[in-house]
Every structure is written in structure tokens, then in C-alpha cells.
Amino acid sequence: MSAVPADFDAATLPPGSPEHKRLLARFFFDTHVEYDPEHIAWPTLSTEEHRRLTGLPFWQEAVSTENVTSNTVTAAAALESDPELSRAIALQGFEEQRHARLLAALTAHYGIPIEFPRPYTPHKLEDDFLFAGFGECFDSFFAFGLFALARESGYFPAALVTVFEPVMEEEVRHILFFVNWVKVRRLQLPWWKRPAFRARCAWIILKQVASRAQTARTLGGGDAPAATRENFTLTAHQDIGAPVTLHGLLGKCLQENDRRMAHYDARLLRPRLVPAIARALYRVLPKRL
Ligand SMILES: [Fe+2]
Ligand SMILES: [Fe+2]
Q1: What is the secondary structure of 250-269 as a DSSP string?
Q2: Which listed ligand is nearest to 97 at the C-alpha?
Q3: How far is the CA of 136 from the centre of ligand 1 (A)?
Q4: Ligand 1 center to residue 150 CA distance, Å?
Q5: Which SS3 state, helix, strand or coil, does residue 81 take?
Q6: How far away, in angstroms, is 139 Cα from ligand 2 center?
Q7: What does the alpha-carbon distance between residue 72 and residue 92 come to, in Å, rounded to a whole number?
Q8: 201 C-alpha vs ligand 1 centroid, how far in Å?
Q9: CB 215 within 8 A of CB 235
Q10: Are the C-beta atoms of 1 and 30 separated by less than 8 Å?
Q11: What distance in angstroms lies between residue 109's CA and the mean position of ligand 2's atoms?
């Protein structure tokens, strides 16, 4: 997808090197697409389709999540001293703001009542950015599978699903950029500071895993309690009319993750942790679960 100049050599592209940083920034700029959420031709829905859409329980949570993510990522451009990488993070911030605008446009058009939160202000910028990024690695992985299930089930009109395809592709780019950036960030530190950075990342990932594990425990037992709706990508298969088991959902997520990641330059590092956890669960879970 990204145009990569011939002077890059896959065999000699060490993470954190100037070439790796150039490739990372360039991949992000080259794959950015233009669209305007305020000028989308929203499809007309039948009464039943409208009821399904407005009945989805996660709109409020989606708007809140985008508020935190978009404001955190936009501010995080200041963390990066490399001008190109800083510009790429700022562009990601713009894309996240656009997700928030898209949700605002959709909920306004179809009359979904939403309370828009006050803009989120990050408190500890790097920690907040890491938390948002690792959170996206989980949420996007599940969103890829759910999106495919929604498309295949025909529960929502194809025209509506198509509106969200650029959002899915942006989330692929975001997590791809993020895992490479984390590596660059760590390698830029003096060697004696790297273990602490690694430990901080591990702690943030653990917090994200614990939160998802709590949600996963509620799967199969009907509706997730409101307290766990924040991980709506884990429970949403119950809401999109897709008769799928957890085993089937994991399989679909793995398949979609591989398919979407394959479009991008093979010299960029891939998110590995979430697919590895999903693959392990997929192997041990019974198919009927
Ligand atoms: Fe987003
Ligand atoms: Fe994102």
C-alpha cells in the first residue's frame, strides 16, 4: 500500500534506526485518506434497521472512548522530538478527532441520544498515550472481526457498513504505527532506562488485559453488565445479529487481522501480543463456547 523507496533494505532495517523511523513516518503519511464526516450521504434505513442501529448499547461508550483517545493522541505529538514522527502522531490525532466527528454525525443523523463529554485533558502524557495505544491494540483486533461479521450477517445495510471501512483501516494503521513507535521510543532511551520503560509498558498492558478478562468472564452469560461496557468490542457480537461463538469470533478476528496487516510494508513490526493471546485461546477453547 505504501510506496517504499528502493534505498530501504528489509535485511538492514534495524528498529529505531533512521531508516526505520523514515519508513514509519512515510507509511503513515502515504496511507492517509481524505474524507469528510460532515458530508457523508447516510443511507436511508428501514424501520427495523433503524431500531437495530439505535438499540446498540455502546454508542455512549464509543463517543467517550474516542474523546479520550483523540485528545490524548493529538497532545502526544509533543512527546516526539523527531519532526516527521511528531507530524505522523499529529496526523493520527486528526484521524481520531475525525472518528469522534463521524460518531457525532451518525448519532445526530439517526437520532441516537448521546451526551458529549468535555474534551479530555491528558494528565501524564506518555502514560496516557501508551494506555490509549495498547488499548487500541486490543479494541482494534476485536473490531476487525466484529466488522467482518456485521458485513457478512447483513444485519445492517451494506451502505452503512461501508461508511466505517476507512475507520477500520485507520485503526490498522494506528496500531501498526504505535507498536513501531514504542520500540523506537525504548531504543532511544539510555540502556539503563530501558528496563523501567519496558516494565511500565508491561504494567499498562496488564491493566488492559485485566479489564478485558473481566469482560470476557461475562461472555456467554447474556448481557454484559454496564460496568464492563467500556470493552464493548468484546461483547458487541451479541448485538450485531451474528450467531457466533467466542471460538468463532476469535477465529474471525485472527483471520481479519492477518488480512488487513498483510497490506502494509513487511519491514514494519506487527502487533504480536493480542494475536498471540487470541491464537492461544482459539486453540484451547471448545468450538461450542
Ligand atoms: Fe479511533
Ligand atoms: Fe485509532
Answers
A1: HHHHHHHHHHHHTTS-TTS-
A2: 1
A3: 8
A4: 18
A5: coil
A6: 9
A7: 10
A8: 21
A9: yes
A10: yes
A11: 23
Q: And the C-alpha cell for 220? A: 456467554
- Complete DSSP assignment for 134-158: HHHHHHHHHHHHHHHHHHHHTSS-H
pTM above the 0.85 mark? yes
CATH architecture of 15-35+47-284: Up-down Bundle (1.20)
User: How far does residue 219's CA lie from ligand 2's centre (Å)?
Assistant: 25
Integer angstrom CA distances of residue 227 from 19, 61, 230, 249: 44, 11, 7, 22
How many other C-beta atoms lie within 10 A of the C-beta of residue 287? 10
Determine the Cα–Cα distance for residues 52 and 156; give it in Å rounded to an integer: 8
163 Cα: distance to centroid of ligand 2 (angstroms): 16
Please give the chain's pLDDT, 289 residues, in tens: 444 444 444 555 899 999 999 999 999 999 999 999 999 999 999 999 999 899 888 888 889 889 999 999 999 999 999 999 999 999 999 999 999 999 999 999 999 999 988 999 999 999 999 999 999 999 999 999 999 998 898 888 999 999 999 999 999 999 999 999 999 999 999 999 999 999 999 999 999 888 877 766 655 444 444 444 556 566 666 666 667 888 999 999 999 999 999 999 999 999 999 999 999 999 998 887 7
Instruction: Output the CA 47–ligand 2 centroid distance in Å.
Output: 31
Q: Work out the angle at residue 238's Cα, subtended by the Cα atoms of residues 237 and 239, and round it to the nearest 5 degrees.
A: 90
Ligand 2 midpoint to CA 92 (Å): 7
User: How do the domains of the chain map onto residue ranges?
Assistant: 15-35+47-284
**Lookup: cell for 195:** 528496563
